[in-house]
Design a protein that fits this description.
Layout (H helix, E strand, L loop, with lengths): L4 H8 L3 H23 L2 H18 L9 H23 L10 H11 L3 H11 L3 H12 L4 H8 L3 H21 L7
Helix pairs in contact: 1-2, 2-3, 2-4, 2-7, 3-4, 4-8, 7-9, 8-9
């Protein structure tokens, strides 16, 4: 598949099965990406559903300047940020009070195979949020630096610095955890 753009265009032409293909291909990754913002897997799933609902109902125009995945993840990021704004107005309780680690582990186990990758993913999740987001987008979602910079609203220079700091932070975290595997 050509990154979802053809499926989205078919959907815009009235093929609802094409939209199902988009959801199947991108939902798990989008949920994990959104979770790096909201730290609640249930809310992440709802936010991903809301992002897909925006596509389905509003049918925004896709511009081929960026990959479909970059465009979709930008919509997901904006949805997550809107949720965070709303939750600050609604609740003063910290979001960590609602964090269900066992549910996240189930999704991680399905999405990330192998014990070393699970350790790596947990170490990434313990990092600063921006570090976790940039590492997730580049290494798990395999987006380019340009696509990642677009999604995160960064310049190329800012992104390069962020990647460098994120890698150093991850290396230190893995050493702290006693990780002895190759990455």
């Amino acid at each position: 598949m050509d990154n979802g753009a053809s499926s989205y265009l078919r959907f815009l032409d009235g093929d609802n099965d094409a939209f199902v293909e988009i959801i199947r291909q991108y939902k798990d990754g989008l949920v994990l990406f959104i979770n790096s913002f909201v730290n609640n897997i249930h809310v992440s799933e709802e936010a991903a559903d809301e992002a897909f609902l925006k596509l389905y109902v509003n049918k925004p125009r896709y511009k081929s300047g960026n990959s479909f995945k970059t465009w979709l993840y930008t919509i997901g990021r904006n949805t997550a940020l809107n949720y965070l704004k709303k939750s600050k107005r609604i609740s003063s309780e910290p979001i960590e009070d609602y964090y269900y680690i066992s549910d996240e582990t189930d999704i991680e186990s399905e999405y990330i195979k192998g014990e070393q990758n699970i350790i790596l993913h947990q170490a990434i999740n313990s990092l600063n949020k921006e570090y976790a987001q940039v590492l997730h987008l580049i290494y798990f979602e395999e987006l380019t630096n340009d696509e990642t910079a677009h999604i995160m609203g960064k310049t190329q220079r800012q992104l390069s610095d962020l990647i460098y700091r994120a890698k150093n932070s991850l290396r230190k975290e893995l050493e702290r955890r006693g990780f002895d595997g190759q990455i």
